[in-house]
UniProtKB/TrEMBL annotation:
The keyword Hydrolase applies. This is Family 1 glycosylhydrolase. It comes from the Bacteria. One of its GO terms (molecular function) is beta-glucosidase activity.
Amino acid sequence: MSVFRDDFLWGGACAANQFEGAWDVDGKGDSVPDHCTNGSNTNPKRITEAFEEGTLYPSHEAIDFYHHYEGDIALFAEMGFKTFRTSINWTRIFPTGEEAEPNEKGLAFYDRVFDCCKKYGIEPLVTISHYELPYALVKKYNGWADRRLVDLYMNYCKTIFERYKDKVKYWLTFNEINAGTMRFGALLSLGTCQGYTGVGFEIPDDIQTRYQALHHQFVASAKAVIYAHEHYPQFKMGNMICYSAAYPLTCDPNDVMAAQQQMDNMNWYCSDVQCLGEYPYFAKRFWAEHGIQIHMEPGDKELLKKGTVDFYTFSYYMSTCVTTHADAETIGGNLLGGTKNPYLKASDWGWQIDPVGLRWSLNQIYARYHKPLMVVENGLGAYDEKGPDGKIHDSYRIDYLRSHIEQMAEAVKDGVDLMGYTPWGCIDLVSASTGEMAKRYGFIYVNKFDDGTGDLSRERKDSFYWYQKVIASNGADLS
Ligand code: BGP
């Protein structure tokens, strides 16, 4: 018997810059990821200002969803998707972020996508900004470091809200807004990388600028929520956090404290603002110890208080350990690595697989906010090899997803209000951290490779048929 709500939103998630391609088609401008080269686990991607001859920029073609959307959405429908999380590429609508009028061809593309979803009864879940800042705003303003970005974002929001008001009900203001608490968030989400070229992870850190830029995103998020609530009462507005589940490596109280501080700084710092409407109690000490001064304009506190979200969403791939002991072994991870957990196995990219950590996280978050939750990213990035029959038998991916859904069910039984689940990269797409195609998450295989070759054809993996059964049984049949 299913423990999930009858209206549970099963689906999948993608981001425009990682799967649309058509980076300069129909009037689209260039966004930050369009300036990122491909890379790998061992050879990190770079950002370049000018496009280098002979260098591959994976977002430029990606998997060309732009021209394949009808077939792809039909495949999502075949799996039984109730929802599809995607983002709108800001530069399709406002190529430099500052035009007086939106780009009609860009708007028309998303009309086609949402209409196609509607045809199959799929509810779109739209991320307004998923690591897709117009590059022109980096060059001119140093991204979100400049408060004028708030108005430009609001202009973009007003345009898409009005255009899609009858087609989209669920909105997320910023993908993984807490990326801004980390050094390379400067490039990924804040766009405070004016003039920087080189390896993304090596971007020089300026913590003052980062936290001020993050404040501007909080204000923008709150304003978008307030505006939506005032003009479109049918909208449901959500936040989105890259959730860091951090365990103390040992029972040394110093490790326990260090783990709590990591959770505070990486998770609650942002979601307290977006869910409770104010900076958490520990922020003042954190700012003082890091020499950060947040400049607030009159009215900001009231805006944050009023602009709290209706539901909380997050990505969850893994957990880490935290320790104060210098000899511990480290591992990689989503946005942030950490210390190796001896009880867990890791993916080929070193991300530690921890389904129980998802139950723990759901409980932690729900206890703090009592808002409906949604897991909007989860999944296993893996190398897929075709079997002798030419098909992908991805039992490892099924195992990963099954064990996480089992723990979601436990959390629901614990009393958590869980409204949906959209595994990441439901169709293979470009990796955000490495720029690879080889790191695949999809239920649908895309014939596209790291050297840019491939005919872009789509094939169903074993996990496709498995997920179809899961959805049909509302999560009761995980066999
Ligand atoms: C999240 C991002 C996604 C996505 C995912 C998987 O941090 O929101 O955009 O890419 O991680 O990460 P990766 O692509 O690096 O494997």
